[in-house]
Design a protein that fits this description.
about 375 residues, Arc Repressor Mutant, subunit A, five-stranded antiparallel β-sheet, globular
Length: about 375
């Protein structure tokens, strides 16, 4: 099977997982193989609670090590700490966040990665808020080698589809036996849901969508076809509906999150799920629809405290890691022990943090971080 065919089948299965979460186990295994790794996972980290959670994985990471990560290493793992200010959807490897030789000297590598023969981790942020991030990641085994350009290319091919599936999956909660006819179960959703054909004609709408159409504040209908108040958003949606009729892969990266603006200035976001392949095809055929459109009010985007600190002081991911470790763990010896690096390494990064922030002592760094964490800080 060539790459194009493998990718097309994988994308179809990714979108099926949006309405049937039980499929993620197999989908993530296939995604790991496509990207070039030994295992893949969908997980989240919360900066305020200093914890994390695996939502779905392929079961290929030993449960002991999976639990050990969240019990012991999640607070100080540089591999994901840097994602709090990473660009959404962009592949990030270990070497993008820390000098690889330094990573190999770290306690996290020696005690967690090396015993499993894992040498790298390539991941991408799917969504983030002020305090948390959701990620898709692929572990690289010794036989895979470290992340290269080919790995990044393949990640860019699958990440947009995984992101779309995850965002839509948050809006729905269906058992697998409901997935084939999911449109019939959506009237109770708070999010608006419409089924449309390739020309944008509305063939089904749930209660919330009917309300949106009736008010005409965000979306409306003209001669049975969906129209948006914003011309650019309308063109984007029409293009997506047209390409959706050509199959899952054709929709590409378009319209993962289409911004919509109501007449009163309030903001909404739309997500499009194609209905032309897999288990979703039965729903599409039943309603003569090529896509399901989900509309919900957009959450206010607030920059996370770590991201604010990085942007304000132009810190590197490693410098941010040391800064946060100083605040959370204590002095240089304690941080060096926790991170599994030499005291001199911590001192080198800490001196750069002092220089960039203008702080003169560790107590000043604690106040600095506390200031950015305050809801009143700007």
């Amino acid at each position: 099977m060539d790459e194009t065919q493998r990718l097309s089948e994988l994308i179809g299965e990714i979108y099926d997982a949006a309405v049937d979460p039980s499929l993620w186990f197999d989908v993530l295994g296939k995604a790991a193989e496509f990207v070039g790794g030994v295992s893949a996972t969908l997980f989240s980290k919360d900066a305020s609670r200093k914890n994390g959670q695996v939502h779905y994985d392929d079961g290929r990471i030993d449960p002991h090590y999976k639990q050990l990560y969240f019990d012991k290493y999640v607070k100080l793992d540089i591999v994901t700490t840097g994602h709090y200010f990473a660009q959404i959807g962009e592949p990030v490897a270990t070497a993008d966040l820390i000098a690889y030789e330094e990573f190999l000297q770290s306690r996290f590598y020696r005690e967690w990665a090396r015993p499993q023969a894992l040498v790298d981790f390539v991941s991408a942020v799917l969504d983030k808020s002020a305090t948390s991030i959701a990620l898709f990641g692929v572990f690289r085994h010794e036989r895979d080698g470290i992340v290269d350009d080919e790995t990044r290319r393949r990640m860019r091919l699958v990440v947009p589809h995984i992101r779309r599936a995850v965002l839509i999956g948050r809006l729905i909660d269906l058992r697998s036996d409901q997935a084939a006819a999911f449109a019939d179960t959506f009237d109770g959703l708070s999010a608006g849901m419409l089924l449309v054909d390739g020309g944008g004609r509305i063939v089904h709408a749930n209660t919330a969508a009917h309300h949106l159409l009736a008010t005409g504040d965000v979306l409306g209908a003209s001669n049975g076809r969906l129209v948006a108040n914003d011309d650019e958003a309308g063109r984007t949606l029409r293009d997506i509906f047209h390409t959706a009729s050509q199959g899952d892969a054709a929709i590409g990266v378009k319209g993962i999150s289409v911004p919509l603006v109501a007449r009163d200035g309030s903001r909404y976001v739309a997500h499009v799920l194609p209905l032309t392949s897999g288990a979703r095809r039965r729903t599409g055929n039943t309603y003569a629809a090529v896509a399901a459109l989900f509309i919900q009010r957009a959450e206010q985007q607030i920059t996370s405290p770590p991201e604010l600190i990085v942007k304000h002081y132009r810190l590197t991911p490693t410098e941010l890691r040391v800064l946060l470790a100083i605040v959370e763990v204590g002095g240089v010896p304690e941080v060096a022990e926790a991170l599994g690096v030499a005291d001199t390494t911590v001192k080198t990064h800490l001196s750069r943090v002092y220089e960039k922030t203008g702080a003169g002592r560790q107590a000043d760094l604690v106040k600095l971080v506390a200031g950015f964490a305050s809801p009143l800080s700007t």
